[in-house]
Amino acid sequence: MIAAKLAAPLLFHWAIALINASPIGSGDCSRPTAVLADGVVIGTTSRLVSTPHLTVHQYLGIPFAKSPPRRFMPPEESTPWNSPWDASYLRPSCFQYFPSSELRGIFNNPPPPESEDCLYLNIFVPPTPPPTGGFTVLFWIHGGTFQLGSGRLPDYDGSSIAANQEVVVVTINYRTNVFGFPGSQDIPLEQRNLGLMDQRKALAWVNKNIKAFGGDPSQVTIFGESAGGFSSQAFGPEESNEEDWMVLTRKLGCNEPCVGSTQLDCVAKVPAEAILKILDEEGLWFTPIVDNTTNGPFFAEAVLQRRAASVPILIGTNADEGSILASLMPSPEVMLDVIFRNDTASKNFARSAYPTNLTEHELKSLILTDHTYTCTTSATARAAVSSAQSVWRYYFNASFPNNQPIPGAGAWHTSEIPLVFGTYRRNNQTTFEQSLLSRAMQKAWGDFAKTPETGPGWARMGSSVDDLRIFDISGNSSGRSTDTQVVDSVCIYYDEAIEANGF
Ligand SMILES: *[C@@H]1O[C@H](CO)[C@@H](O)[C@H](O)[C@H]1NC(C)=O
Ligand SMILES: *[C@@H]1O[C@H](CO)[C@@H](O)[C@H](O)[C@H]1NC(C)=O
Ligand SMILES: *[C@@H]1O[C@H](CO)[C@@H](O)[C@H](O)[C@H]1NC(C)=O
Ligand SMILES: *[C@@H]1O[C@H](CO)[C@@H](O)[C@H](O)[C@H]1NC(C)=O
Ligand SMILES: *[C@@H]1O[C@H](CO)[C@@H](O)[C@H](O)[C@H]1NC(C)=O
Ligand SMILES: *[C@@H]1O[C@H](CO)[C@@H](O)[C@H](O)[C@H]1NC(C)=O
């Protein structure tokens, strides 16, 4: 998960603030209302499941761009509405592609409705009057390998953190897979990362409109996990979608279009379901490409060239990131070949870091956790520190009886999110530690967003030996600080390759 403070200029004074904060159950059934340039939005008020004495105003499913967008085209301005917009329910997710049935089982449960009509966002607002200048805003970009995911997932319900931290939380949808990242050469390079353009459109919408919901447009923090963390950073490795696009066009019979029409025109007219069927059958992935406009170059390079925004950063990983992702990986040998290219000595050195009696799955999981998460995050954090950015780092290492999707998943990829959002499962297995840890993490995220210069409540990287915050339940569940070497010692095997390959 990565969070970065984004300073947005206060440019949009004309958005009118009108928050109706009347509590529910007062006999008055008026609903929370906001007046935007596009029209009136009417939300709903809801009690928190966890703490029923707290309520939150929810504005769900507001269009931040014209929706549905034109397929394979950049997002356009939303069209104003005349009668009040009913923001009391969630709108569909963008179309999702699941690269494996295991991921579908974990991340599509229950399956949300899906549509190309999906460019909506959700806003969660504390019912109390905003402070002078407005509430701090947390802007969530969901993960899902750029293939799947949606702002509407129950895990990302912003109510708890909004109410407990008195912040405004925004969750968004953006186009994923081929709908978000088409590989057609008929599209100009800098207009192919549609999913990233959607995210920016949503952020610009927040800048322009959040005051009407009590938010402070000059105090916005973007935060995200996995592909969403990458998006917050938006300086990515080289990828190409053109090969997979060719497979898609061939399978759709769009590779030899009629005179006067392009392959792109042809694919743009096919029913979405037919496209998704081919993604499934052929295992086609579409991800952000480097265009040096919406994405790229590498973060380290961007930081060196001072092209990255110089903002405070909160960054961290989980102890067992690889556990549920290992099944998507090739053999450990191939993984190491990709990391170390032709450098056999370094590859063998890394191989020696692990016991020889691990199962293939365990080894894959460890390589992925160490290389792709722990050590790449460490390198990213150090690169930002070296250009005098304030960075705070954490390490999440807690698992609970009621949050294990597969046996031995541990602190798996995404398992910290329900604690940050306060949406962890509540059943007869929920532990007291789970709620304490959730509280501590919510407070850290809230404090970082409110005062990014002073941070989330532990030592800034480089300011103390113990500058790594561990969120686990070994102590009193408020976290504890330690030396980053405790988790980074394995990076002696990977640092050089990470430098050489770029990050
Ligand atoms: C992006 O910029 C890097 C240098 O910073 C360059 O090597 C690369 O070719 C550029 N890519 C594109 C697509 O412009
Ligand atoms: C890897 O290959 C490159 C050229 O492709 C070569 O310059 C380099 O020396 C090789 N490294 C090793 C460790 O063999
Ligand atoms: C694997 O080997 C280590 C020693 O390297 C040993 O402590 C451990 O018990 C072994 N595990 C299994 C499952 O055999
Ligand atoms: C993470 O938790 C596991 C299991 O409790 C433990 O073995 C490991 O030492 C912990 N890691 C850190 C860095 O605390
Ligand atoms: C917990 O709840 C489940 C049903 O949700 C039930 O099957 C189980 O017996 C319960 N366990 C305890 C210890 O109450
Ligand atoms: C938890 O421990 C920290 C120090 O490790 C201490 O500052 C804090 O007050 C403790 N919190 C509780 C609730 O005991």
UniProtKB/TrEMBL annotation:
Any single Pfam family the record assigns to this protein: COesterase
Domain of life: Eukaryota
UniProt keyword terms in alphabetical order: Hydrolase, Signal
Keyword Zinc-finger: no
The enzyme's E.C. designation: 3.1.1.-
GO MF annotation: an example: carboxylic ester hydrolase activity
Signal peptide extent: 1-21
PROSITE patterns (alphabetical): CARBOXYLESTERASE_B_1, CARBOXYLESTERASE_B_2
Domain (Carboxylesterase type B) ranges: 36-232, 244-452
Keyword Signal (UniProt): yes
Similarity comment: family membership: Belongs to the type-B carboxylesterase/lipase family.
Protein name: Carboxylic ester hydrolase
